[in-house]
Amino acid sequence: MVGIEKSIPKRDMKKADIEYREKIARDGAFIQKVRDALTPLTKDVTVIENGQVKEVQVTRLGLGPIDTPFGKFYEFEFEVGDRWKEYNVLVKAGLDDKFNPQFEDGKILVRMDSACKTGQLFHDKTCDCKLQLLKAMHEIEKNGSGMIVHMPKQDGRGMGLSFKLGTLMLQDELGYNTVEAAAALKSMEFIEPEALDPRTYGGVIAILRFFGIDSGFDINVATNNPKKIQAFQENGYDVGRTPVIIPPNEYTKRHLDAKEETFHHDLRRDND
């Protein structure tokens, strides 16, 4: 074994090695800050969800910048102690020395974004989720700051991707709208709105409180869904609302009509 070790030649220092060593010597303090940010940071916060007071554990797992067609955002990865667990947060704001976002004017445009793999990732024409996300990013760019809280586990209005794929089969083969298809798969005798959208948003409030964003901030929520506004209101936030209107087309109109009637989404289709 000793002989083998002696036979390994020493690696010559190349130009790339020298430049690398110079960089880490120069930038060591910042590199250490980023290493520290990769150490999970946990806070316990209190939220109200559907009238119940809950203690929720929020853990920041990491963060980094991403350059998008709408400028630079910082993406944060969170784990929250609720049923949805995984959260990704896009933030357009300055960061303090501990990488916490700073909204200096106290105004924040917030988008709560439930996952939609079929639309946001694979461009399914029967939903407008991708277009809503892009519009929210554009509005945040115009606003100069804001936040999008993306919830990967809330696909299919919280019922999961597999369930949603089943509803798409009924929509395609039988002509059902999104509400009818979900109710049929759940064997409902009548359409029950609450059972067809079990999503909760206490985790979003928990993340805002992790960041120190309390009810003193001026928050505007980019949504068509009144249920999302209620999540802020029951936690003491006085919020405004910015509708995210995507003109309907031949693929989306029946589904938007159904969501407007069943879930009271405010679609304000002035150009419909």
From TrEMBL:
<keyword id="KW-0479">Metal-binding</keyword>
<dbReference type="GO" id="GO:0003935">
    <property type="term" value="F:GTP cyclohydrolase II activity"/>
</dbReference>
<dbReference type="GO" id="GO:0005829">
    <property type="term" value="C:cytosol"/>
</dbReference>
<keyword id="KW-0686">Riboflavin biosynthesis</keyword>
<feature type="domain" description="GTP cyclohydrolase II">
    <location>
        <begin position="66"/>
        <end position="239"/>
    </location>
</feature>
<dbReference type="InterPro" id="IPR032677">
    <property type="entry name" value="GTP_cyclohydro_II"/>
</dbReference>
<comment type="pathway">
    <text>Cofactor biosynthesis; riboflavin biosynthesis; 5-amino-6-(D-ribitylamino)uracil from GTP: step 1/4.</text>
</comment>
<dbReference type="GO" id="GO:0009231">
    <property type="term" value="P:riboflavin biosynthetic process"/>
</dbReference>
<keyword id="KW-0378">Hydrolase</keyword>
<dbReference type="Pfam" id="PF00925">
    <property type="entry name" value="GTP_cyclohydro2"/>
</dbReference>
<dbReference type="InterPro" id="IPR000926">
    <property type="entry name" value="RibA"/>
</dbReference>
<keyword id="KW-0342">GTP-binding</keyword>
<dbReference type="GO" id="GO:0046872">
    <property type="term" value="F:metal ion binding"/>
</dbReference>
<dbReference type="InterPro" id="IPR036144">
    <property type="entry name" value="RibA-like_sf"/>
</dbReference>
<dbReference type="GO" id="GO:0008686">
    <property type="term" value="F:3,4-dihydroxy-2-butanone-4-phosphate synthase activity"/>
</dbReference>
<protein>
    <recommendedName>
        <fullName>GTP cyclohydrolase II</fullName>
        <ecNumber>3.5.4.25</ecNumber>
    </recommendedName>
</protein>
<dbReference type="GO" id="GO:0005525">
    <property type="term" value="F:GTP binding"/>
</dbReference>
<keyword id="KW-0862">Zinc</keyword>
<keyword id="KW-0547">Nucleotide-binding</keyword>
